[in-house]
Amino acid sequence: xxxxxxxxxxxxxxxxxxxxxxxxxxxxxxxxxxxxxxxxxxxxxxxxxxxxxxxxxxxxxxxxxxxxxxxxxxxxxxxxxxxxxxxxxxxxxxxxxxxxxxxxxxxxxxxxxxxxxxxxxxxxxxxxxxxxxxxxxxxxxxxxxxxxxxxxxxxxxxxxxxxxxxxxxxxxxxxxxxxxxxxxxxxxxxxxxxxxxxxxxxxxxxxxxxxxxxxxxxxxxxxxxxxxxxxxxxxx
Length: 236
Ligand SMILES: Nc1ncnc2c1ncn2[C@@H]1O[C@H](COP(=O)(O)OP(=O)(O)OP(=O)(O)O)[C@@H](O)[C@H]1O
Fold this sequence. Notes:
The chain has helices at residues 41-48, 70-75, 92-100, 109-115, 131-143, 161-176, 188-194, 212-219, 224-232; strands spanning 3-12, 15-25, 30-35, 58-61, 77-80, 149-153, 180-184, 197-202, 205-210.
């Protein structure tokens, strides 16, 4: 298994953000973490990456602990955060170079910039990029180290239709080549295209899990969107 999580719990003071979350992700598999705002998706990812304190029975990435073997684990892991903390005064090219310096091996920057439609932005300051361009850059940087597993938090938020489709295609290709992905998303079309396995969280608790088809069947609904709303407690 590329990632194994067993009984992960995250707590902020009295607030239990994630409760007994357990799953595993194999090579080339895509796992989707779904849930309403505040359901615990980002907290789960932050805990898996060792950024947030957590309790767990087991937490291994590529057979190693992301807490005690950080350096080895992070050579093989890509991360895209919801709030991208770019240094706005860098150009796109400078950000790529800085990021690249953190890893032993990386994918060729030129090819990635072109894949993400950012080739003509390389000399542009990050602060002058549009929201969607910044988002594409964040995903691109997550993939730069040629990781075995990538964590994508709100993958396509802010992207236009064409950019979303391009990104889905690119990720599907990388998945075929063995990339494992953990993503969060509020868009069920994207989840249907990309995810092999879904986990729906509600106030930190796993209320449903399975393939897209499993989730639809379990809910008694006809579409994934309705099934999601049913389980996530977002029904009006
Ligand atoms: N540092 C913190 N201190 C206290 N509470 C926190 C902290 N971080 C998150 N929370 C709370 O934990 C819960 C889970 O938050 P989290 O960010 O994991 O949700 P999410 O599912 O990623 O939401 P969204 O879809 O809005 O990104 C929320 O109620 C949030 O307010």
